[in-house]
Sequence to fold (113 residues):
Amino acid sequence: MATEATLIDTTVPPGGEAMIRSELIQKLAEDNPHLYQRDVERIVNTFFEEIIDALSRGERVELRGFGAFSVKRRDARVGRNPRTGETVEVEEKCVPFFKTGKLLRDRLNGLES
Fold:
Protein backbone atom coordinates (compact mmCIF):
# COMPACT_ATOMS: atom_id res chain seq x y z
CA MET A 1 0.00 0.00 0.00
CA ALA A 2 1.54 3.30 -1.11
CA THR A 3 1.46 6.27 1.21
CA GLU A 4 0.96 9.78 -0.02
CA ALA A 5 3.64 12.31 0.96
CA THR A 6 2.48 15.57 2.49
CA LEU A 7 3.97 18.60 0.76
CA ILE A 8 4.75 21.60 2.93
CA ASP A 9 5.08 25.07 1.41
CA THR A 10 8.19 26.49 3.11
CA THR A 11 7.89 29.89 1.43
CA VAL A 12 5.06 31.02 3.72
CA PRO A 13 5.17 30.48 7.48
CA PRO A 14 2.41 28.32 8.98
CA GLY A 15 -0.69 30.38 9.67
CA GLY A 16 0.46 33.56 7.99
CA GLU A 17 2.00 35.53 5.19
CA ALA A 18 5.66 36.38 4.77
CA MET A 19 6.56 39.83 6.16
CA ILE A 20 8.71 42.03 3.95
CA ARG A 21 11.04 44.82 5.08
CA SER A 22 8.59 47.65 4.33
CA GLU A 23 5.87 45.90 6.37
CA LEU A 24 8.30 45.49 9.28
CA ILE A 25 9.11 49.21 9.11
CA GLN A 26 5.41 50.09 8.99
CA LYS A 27 4.61 47.85 11.99
CA LEU A 28 7.46 49.29 14.06
CA ALA A 29 6.41 52.85 13.16
CA GLU A 30 2.81 52.09 14.21
CA ASP A 31 3.97 50.55 17.51
CA ASN A 32 6.23 53.58 18.21
CA PRO A 33 4.22 56.71 17.31
CA HIS A 34 6.88 58.93 18.92
CA LEU A 35 9.27 58.00 16.08
CA TYR A 36 9.05 59.24 12.52
CA GLN A 37 8.69 56.51 9.90
CA ARG A 38 11.87 57.71 8.15
CA ASP A 39 13.79 57.25 11.42
CA VAL A 40 12.38 53.74 11.89
CA GLU A 41 13.39 52.95 8.29
CA ARG A 42 16.93 54.21 8.97
CA ILE A 43 17.13 52.07 12.14
CA VAL A 44 15.92 48.91 10.39
CA ASN A 45 18.25 49.44 7.41
CA THR A 46 21.21 50.11 9.74
CA PHE A 47 20.40 46.96 11.73
CA PHE A 48 20.45 44.78 8.60
CA GLU A 49 23.54 46.51 7.19
CA GLU A 50 25.46 45.87 10.42
CA ILE A 51 24.57 42.17 10.29
CA ILE A 52 25.63 41.99 6.62
CA ASP A 53 28.89 43.84 7.33
CA ALA A 54 29.75 41.57 10.28
CA LEU A 55 29.06 38.43 8.24
CA SER A 56 31.15 39.73 5.33
CA ARG A 57 34.05 40.10 7.80
CA GLY A 58 33.52 36.48 8.85
CA GLU A 59 32.10 37.40 12.26
CA ARG A 60 29.20 35.74 14.03
CA VAL A 61 26.14 37.80 15.05
CA GLU A 62 24.23 36.51 18.06
CA LEU A 63 20.86 37.90 19.14
CA ARG A 64 20.06 36.18 22.44
CA GLY A 65 16.76 34.32 22.35
CA PHE A 66 16.32 34.98 18.63
CA GLY A 67 19.25 33.22 17.02
CA ALA A 68 22.73 33.49 15.59
CA PHE A 69 23.90 34.37 12.09
CA SER A 70 27.19 32.94 10.88
CA VAL A 71 29.02 32.10 7.67
CA LYS A 72 29.72 28.55 6.56
CA ARG A 73 32.27 27.68 3.91
CA ARG A 74 31.23 25.16 1.29
CA ASP A 75 34.13 23.26 -0.27
CA ALA A 76 34.61 23.05 -4.01
CA ARG A 77 33.02 19.95 -5.48
CA VAL A 78 31.98 18.25 -8.67
CA GLY A 79 28.29 18.75 -9.38
CA ARG A 80 25.95 17.61 -12.09
CA ASN A 81 23.75 19.65 -14.39
CA PRO A 82 20.28 18.15 -13.80
CA ARG A 83 19.09 18.99 -17.29
CA THR A 84 21.99 17.54 -19.31
CA GLY A 85 23.63 15.21 -16.80
CA GLU A 86 26.98 16.86 -17.57
CA THR A 87 29.45 17.15 -14.67
CA VAL A 88 30.43 20.68 -13.66
CA GLU A 89 32.98 22.11 -11.25
CA VAL A 90 31.33 24.01 -8.40
CA GLU A 91 33.69 26.53 -6.79
CA GLU A 92 34.22 26.96 -3.07
CA LYS A 93 31.81 29.50 -1.62
CA CYS A 94 30.60 31.04 1.61
CA VAL A 95 26.91 30.88 2.54
CA PRO A 96 24.98 32.57 5.36
CA PHE A 97 23.68 30.30 8.11
CA PHE A 98 21.06 30.99 10.78
CA LYS A 99 20.54 28.93 13.91
CA THR A 100 17.41 29.71 15.91
CA GLY A 101 17.62 30.59 19.58
CA LYS A 102 15.74 28.73 22.29
CA LEU A 103 13.10 31.46 22.83
CA LEU A 104 12.24 31.59 19.13
CA ARG A 105 12.17 27.80 18.81
CA ASP A 106 9.93 27.48 21.86
CA ARG A 107 7.53 30.16 20.63
CA LEU A 108 7.26 28.55 17.19
CA ASN A 109 6.40 25.25 18.86
CA GLY A 110 3.78 26.75 21.19
CA LEU A 111 5.92 26.45 24.33
CA GLU A 112 5.73 30.09 25.41
CA SER A 113 6.25 30.75 29.08
Q: What stands out?
A: The CA atoms of residues 66 and 101 lie 5 Å apart. Helices lie at 21-31, 37-56, 102-108. The chain has a mean pLDDT of 89. DSSP finds three helices and five strands in the chain.
